[in-house]
Amino acid sequence: MKAVSVEEAVAMIPNGASVMVGGFMGIGTPERLLNELVRQRKSELSIISNDAAVPGRGVGKLFDASLVSTLTTSHIGLNPNVQKQMMANKVAVGLVPQGTLVERIRAGGCGLGGVLTPTGVGTMVEDGKRQIDVDGKHYLLETALRADFALVHAFLADYLGNLSYALTARNFNPVMAMAADIVIVTAENIVPVGVITPDHVVTPAPLVDYLVVNG
């Protein structure tokens, strides 16, 4: 794990990169990294996130600046900018049921090819997907999701890169930290090693590549 400035962290992300962004409706989202993505005008990004947040908040800032080419998510209902860009064919949106989305990310982090789920069987969700029968029950094969980068926000990080989360910030950040080639972290508090007790470490240090220093 290496400590970097937010400018250095975002400079590593090229245009066109696939990026997972942690958080849940803007809660637990690495806002400083998103602000810097906008400032550095990183474009044609393929974003994987739980939702599209709202204009001016969370990943919504990326759509405000028209920096996204594709979005894989479970919910865009509170962001009219995303809806307009989707209808204008400026952003390709892949809507995935929320439970399926997090399981596909988890599968990517665990080295699995995908997951079997009954969600979507008999609906338009199954179009173009492989169907598998298990003990007489139909399932869809949903492929694993990985990304070039994961932008993660923690409540606590220590100097080694061990992470702990608060409340709903734990929903997507930990699984995304397992499913990307490069993991960049911001934290509310950076503390000495040992402050986070071992049983409170959710994301262990070996998964973290870069920690954005405070300031």
Can you give me a brief rundown of this structure?
By secondary structure, the chain is α/β, with parallel strands linked by helices. Helix content is 21%, strand content 31%.
- What is the strand tally? 12
Strand content: 25-35%
What distance separates the N and C termini? 18 Å
Global morphology: globular
Computed CA radius of gyration, to the nearest angstrom: 17 Å
Order of helices and strands: EHEHEHEHEHEEEEEHEE
**Nearest-integer average pLDDT:** 96
Q: Residue ranges: pLDDT <50 for 5 or more in a row?
A: none
The total of helices stands at: 6
Helix content: 10-25%
| Category by helix and strand content | alpha/beta
Largest sheet: 9 strands, mixed
Can you characterise this structure?
The radius of gyration is 17 Å and the shape is globular. The protein is an alpha/beta fold and 215 residues long. The strands form two sheets. Strands 1, 2, 3, 4, 5, 9, 10, 11 and 12 form a nine-stranded mixed sheet that branches.
List keywords for this structure.
215 residues; alpha/beta; nine-stranded mixed β-sheet; three-stranded antiparallel β-sheet; 21% helix
Describe the protein's topology.
Elements: E1 2-4, H1 6-11, E2 18-21, H2 31-39, E3 45-49, H3 60-64, E4 68-73, H4 80-87, E5 92-95, H5 98-110, E6 114-117, E7 131-134, E8 137-143, E9 147-158, E10 163-164, H6 173-176, E11 180-191, E12 210-212
Parallel strand pairs: 1-12, 2-3, 2-9, 3-4, 4-5, 9-11, 11-12
Antiparallel strand pairs: 6-8, 7-8, 9-10
